[in-house]
Write a structure and sequence with these properties.
Elements: H1 13-28, E1 41-46, H2 52-63, E2 67-72, H3 83-93, E3 96-100, H4 104-113, E4 118-122, H5 128-142, E5 149-153, H6 158-169, E6 173-177, H7 188-196, E7 200-202, H8 206-210, E8 215-218, H9 233-243, H10 250-253, E9 259-262, H11 274-278, H12 284-302
Helix pairs in contact: 1-5, 1-12, 2-12, 3-4, 5-6, 5-12, 6-7
Length: 304
């Protein structure tokens, strides 16, 4: 297995399944692992805001007997120094680095400098930690991954990138139902792998996409860091108008037994309505909880 977790490309289908199964095992018997990372430390570097990523990693390290150090990018020398140099220094103090950054290129520089594993807590192209939690949640509810069908609605982005890859590598069919991709997240190499897998397709009609889906999934249409930015207001309005037909809502879900997923935070009334979030088929908050357990599994796998 790769030393780092940066894109999910580093993991084979078996390795993804191993982490998922490990996460389920840890969730069922957390006390067994309560000292597994005793005297180990995790550096958590945040360039972007966070709720789930910060809490799940920090609490996860605590529950494993270790310690997490929170670093706001703006209050460190990462803002002005060579990223590789700073990462090398941080790695001399800690056993693992988790970073949530604006640019994947910066994360790659961090990984080059670091002497310990680096985990991508989210960047503009990928969100591997979210995908591990998503697949763990699906397996908990469905008992398997292989052969299931997931339909993703809204805009193609960092979340759909890693989720599509995680699905095809574990034998799931992934349908992308979007009118466009977020330009920042486009990865042509990933798209090539998806297209030759035989498990990936694109469908513009939401009614057709949901027809045979076991799971439906959506994410924010506008990146969190610009959702309230006045300079992004015109683009936000354009996206809302374009994407409203792709909202997961009560009408779309009529007649479907599909589980409903969203990685949160949700903008209610935009990509998803209140009914879809709270309906009996929603497993959204199980997803959120499983960030803790799947990330504990990833930490225990990476930290030696």
């Amino acid at each position: 297995m790769s030393r780092d977790l940066l894109t999910l490309k580093e993991l084979s289908g078996k390795e993804i399944n191993d982490i998922i199964d490990f996460g389920i095992k840890i969730k069922k018997n957390p006390e067994k692992y309560s000292t597994s990372l005793k005297d180990k430390s995790l550096a958590m570097i945040f360039q972007k805001t966070s709720t789930r990523t910060r809490i799940s990693f920090e609490v996860g390290m605590t529950q494993l007997g270790g310690h997490a150090v929170y670093l706001d990018w703006r209050t460190t020398q990462f803002v002005m120094a060579d990223i590789k140099d700073e990462a090398k220094v941080v790695s001399r103090y800690t056993d693992c680095i988790m970073a949530r950054v604006l640019k994947h290129a910066d994360l790659l520089e961090m990984a080059k400098g670091s002497e310990v594993p680096v985990i991508n807590g989210l960047c503009e192209k990928y969100h591997p930690c979210q995908t591990l939690a998503d697949l763990m949640t699906i397996k908990e509810h469905k008992g398997k991954l292989n052969g299931l069908k997931l339909a993703y609605f809204g805009i193609g982005n960092n979340v759909s990138n890693t989720l599509s890859l995680g699905c095809i590598r574990t034998g799931m069919r992934f349908t992308l139902c979007v009118p466009e991709m977020d330009p920042l997240s486009i990865d042509n190499e990933l798209l090539d792998e998806l297209k030759v897998s035989g498990l990936y397709d694109e469908e513009k009609d939401p009614k057709k996409a949901i027809k045979r889906a076991d799971i439906v999934y959506t994410d924010t249409w506008v990146n969190m860091e610009v959702f309230l930015d006045p300079k992004f207001e015109e683009e936000k309005k354009r996206r809302i108008k374009l994407l409203m037909p792709y909202q997961i809502n009560k009408k779309l879900l009529e007649g479907s037994d599909a589980l409903v997923m969203h990685d949160l935070p949700a903008h209610r009334g935009y990509e998803i309505d209140d009914y879809a979030i709270t309906c009996p088929k929603s497993i959204i908050f199980d997803q959120a909880e499983n960030r803790l357990h799947s990330q504990k599994a990833a930490l225990l796998t990476l930290i030696k």
